[in-house]
Amino acid sequence: MPPGLRILGITLVTAAAFAAAVVVTGFLACGVSGCSGAGFGPAYAPVQGQIGLVVCGALLVPLAVHLLGGRPHLERVAAELVAGVVGAVLAMALLGLGPDGCPSGQTRARAGAEDFAPGTLTCVGGPGGG
Predict the structure, then answer these.
(1) d(Cα 126, Cα 54) in Å, to the nearest integer?
(2) Which UniProt key words apply to this protein (predicted)?
(3) Residue 52 domain flag
(4) Total structural domains in the chain?
(5) b/e string for 12-23 if b means 16 or more Cβ within 10 A?
(6) Tens place of pLDDT per residue across the chain (130 aa)
(7) Whole-angstrom Cα distance, residue 92 to residue 69?
(8) Torsions phi, psi of 106, nearest 5?
(9) Strand (E) or helix (H) holding 124
(10) Sign, CA torsion 69/74/78/81
């Protein structure tokens, strides 16, 4: 297989996996209705959102490993870290999430006694929040 075709294949698989991870992270962070709350309303899960953001970043690391296979070890490690951070930041930008797993402008809080799952982490404040 020609090297260019192999790189294209790895890139396409990485892009598809990244897109799927972003969609799943959106569901995990805000629920089926999304962070805007259309339909059933948002169901925030910031910890699961943060885990999804890490997974999105980690999905770009194998592409960096493959592209920089012949480079010195320190350059490869640096590129892998950069790829992970870029992947997580890109997912945050696409989903409108902050690094705490909550939508931009909102913060983490514990759900009150009147909420569906008292004591669990949720997001409050800002647009769409309490």
Answers:
(1) 24
(2) Membrane, Transmembrane, Transmembrane helix
(3) yes
(4) 1
(5) eebeebbeebbe
(6) 787 888 888 899 999 999 999 999 988 888 877 777 676 777 888 888 899 999 999 999 988 888 887 888 898 899 999 999 999 999 999 998 989 888 888 888 887 777 767 778 888 886 544 4
(7) 28
(8) -115, 160
(9) strand 121-124
(10) positive
Task: Write out the residue range of the structural domain in which residue 47 sits.
Answer: 3-124
- Cα(40)–Cα(57) distance, rounded to whole angstroms? 29
The single-letter DSSP state of residue 107 is E
Record the tokens describing residue 118, joined without a space: 């008292």
Q: Report residue 3 as tokens.
A: 């090297």
Residue 21: both structure tokens together: 């991870």
Q: Measuring CA to CA, which residue among 62, 51, 11 is closest to residue 29?
A: 51
Q: What tokens appear for 106 in the block?
A: 């909102």
129 inside domain: no
Rounded to a whole number of angstroms, the CA Rg of the chain reads: 18
Residue 44 lies in a domain: yes
* Inside any domain, residue 45: yes
